[in-house]
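[step 3/7] fold_predict: job queued, chain A
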Amino acid sequence: MLDQRKLLKGIAIFLACYMIAALTWWTYSLLKYSQRDYQLSVEILDLESELLLKKVQMQFQIDSVADDTLFVKVNQMQWNNIDRSIHDFISKETQKFEVFSAYNPQLQILKIHCKIKNKLLGSINEKLEAKTRAWLGEGITIGILTLLVIGAMYIYIDRIIQFNQQKSNFLLAVTHELKTPIAATKLAIQTLVRNKNKETQERVLAISDQNMDRLSKLMERILLATQFESTLPIANKEWISVSKVVEMSLSYTQLTSDQVQNIVISKTHDFEIFCDPELLKTAFANLLSNGIKYCEKDSEALKIESFIQNGHYYTVFSDQGFGISPTERQRIFQKFYRIGNEKTRSRQGSGLGLYLVKSILQLHNANILVTNNNPKGSKFSIIYDSKQCKKI
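[step 4/7] structure written:
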């Protein structure tokens, strides 16, 4: 699965680079085309200017032409008439040019200069700038949309791969969880058949009962998770003290005597909550088992405390385990998700426990917050709906 994610990432990067390169080349080509179109328009105007000057030269007695300028040798009495005639002729031929004239009385030379109108050149420049902005805007917009689509597809497919990986891990974990109690029960039955000693039989039956109970609880978690996935289970709510639910969860978890001694329960601020005791017991039991399961050997006690602060009602589970990084704190409540850490992966689990905790608490309008515990470990703080709680 890890190789699939790497392959997906490589494909996404390749597609993004390819599309950016293609869009860049496409935008560059359009800009070059716009620039060439502008140059062509200016060249056409220059050709029209040359053609116009040739027409004037053929119509009037022009002595010379140089750089869009006409030179006419005329006396001082006639230059006004000739100048007006040339102006009128040019005005009839085209409206694209401005005509400037100057007379030198000493040389008796009339100089007439044709120039493209500034307004026309400005219009051509504006069209070029508008096209440039349009092509750039279109290229950038399409580029951003393309990257967003590639990014969305990458996230979507990556989540599918992650979910499949989590399901695969879940199946492996459940297979192991099923195999262990079944194998232990089978061994117990074989022992009972061979050994008729009553004391041995009682001990073996007790072990078998524990394994069957473990198997039953796994089935309960799977069925409850399936219920939350399809339709929410109906909560049979009643008023019950939080300390009572904690006691129920301790009994349900079936802890060893050493584990029980390692749990500290604070009863200084007990209160009642309107809840489904069985569902809340399941949530507490999952937090309890996780707190014990992921603690290091010879670690300090797991602490459970309930209290009221600023009108809010809390139950906090504080462990001395490995801790949970901030990036993992939201993901741990996802279905089938387990932290990718070798220390935690060596522990048994199905990836359903914290998903059920979150789902059960949401059914009771409660929230759960994960923070660091000092000096190490994590704190799981349950914040209840104040309207469904009351002081004792």
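[step 5/7] annotate
Residues 129 and 263 are 75 Å apart (CA to CA).
The chain has three domains: 2-139, 165-230, 238-391.
exit 0
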